[in-house]
Amino acid sequence: MEDKHNEMAKVFKALCDPNRLMIIEMLQGGEKCACQLLDDLHIGQSTLSHHMKSLCESGVVNCRREGKWMYYSLSKAGCEAAYNLLAGIMNASEQSNVDKRCFFE
Question: What tens digit of pLDDT does each residue of 36-65 get?
Fold first, then answer.
């Protein structure tokens, strides 16, 4: 159970940063080299590396090395897992039997 929550936390952590969301948006167009991401985001290489580590560890992004460059792409399985995680939370919220009086007192 703890492992499940750790994995969920990694996904939420990866998605809760504006730069990471921009990176995900950029990767929707296909695989990108780190140099392309650096040019478009106007951030330092070490900052990009930090963000990419979080995205890759969450499973949302895949990475591969070619020579001296890193290439990044969205992970279909990782994105589906993130989507299912958020959908599960939304479904649970819709099905909850919260006493509506709590909101009006």
Answer: 999 999 899 999 999 999 999 999 999 999
Q: What's the rounded Cα separation, in Å, for the pair 68 and 101?
A: 60
Dihedral of CA atoms 11, 13, 19, 24 in degrees, nearest 10, equals: 0
**CATH architecture group of domain 2-88:** Orthogonal Bundle (1.10)
The position carrying tokens 């929550």 is: 5
User: CA 37, CA 24: separation in Å to the nearest integer?
Assistant: 10
Closest by CA to 56, choosing from 24, 19, 88, is 24
Q: Which helix (H) or strand (E) holds 93?
A: helix 76-95
User: Taking the model in full, what pTM does it have?
Assistant: 0.77
H helices of 1-105, in order, are: 2-15, 18-27, 34-41, 45-58, 76-95, 101-104
Q: What is the residue extent of each domain of the chain?
A: 2-88
